[in-house]
Amino acid sequence: MVKGDVNKPKGKTSAYAFFVQTCREEHKRKHPEQSVNFAEFSKQCSERWRGLTANDKRRFEDMAKNDKVRYERDMRGYVPPKGMAKSGRRKKDPNAPKRPP
């Protein structure tokens, strides 16, 4: 069962997410048969991201800006289906008994 609207535009991607995506592609090119340990891979990627200069990060930040523009453009044309209103926080029943301490 799919939760939410399948026609809703995909969310915007951050600069770090673009960086991790390229890291993963590099890793797959170098080691095509090797399975990836996600925890170890994430640590290595985050260390590499912290070590990048602002100039190197700019490429990924530009990709994120372009994706944000794409997302905003797609959301302008998006109309949510009826019955898919934002569900707020449930109201607490004032008559409900209090929990003991």
General description of the model:
With 101 residues, the protein is mainly alpha-helical. It has a domain of 62 residues: High mobility group box domain (DNA Binding (I), subunit A), CATH 1.10.30.10. Helix content is 52%, strand content 0%. The chain is extended. The model has no long low-confidence stretch (mean pLDDT 88).
Give the arrangement of secondary structure elements:
Blueprint: H1 15-30, H2 38-51, H3 54-76
Helix pairs in contact: 1-2, 1-3
GO molecular function, one term: DNA binding
Domain HMG box: 9-79
GO biological process, one term: regulation of transcription by RNA polymerase II
What tags apply to this protein structure?
101 residues; mainly alpha; 3 helices; extended; inflammatory response
Low-confidence stretches: none
User: Please, what is the average pLDDT?
Assistant: 88
Straight-line N-to-C gap = 39 Å
Strand tally is: 0
Biggest sheet details: none
Query: Treating each run of at least 4 consecutive H or I residues as one helix, how many helices?
Result: 3
The helix fraction, in percent, is 40-55%
CATH superfamily of the domain at 15-76: High mobility group box domain
If you compute it from the alpha carbons, what radius of gyration comes out, rounded to the nearest whole angstrom?
Answer: 21 Å
CATH fold naming of the domain at 15-76: DNA Binding (I), subunit A
Which CATH architecture of the domain at 15-76 would you pick? Answer: Orthogonal Bundle
Please write the string of helix (H) and strand (E) elements.
Answer: HHH
Tell me the fraction of residues in β-strands, as a range. under 5%
General shape:
extended
CATH C-level of the domain at 15-76: Mainly Alpha
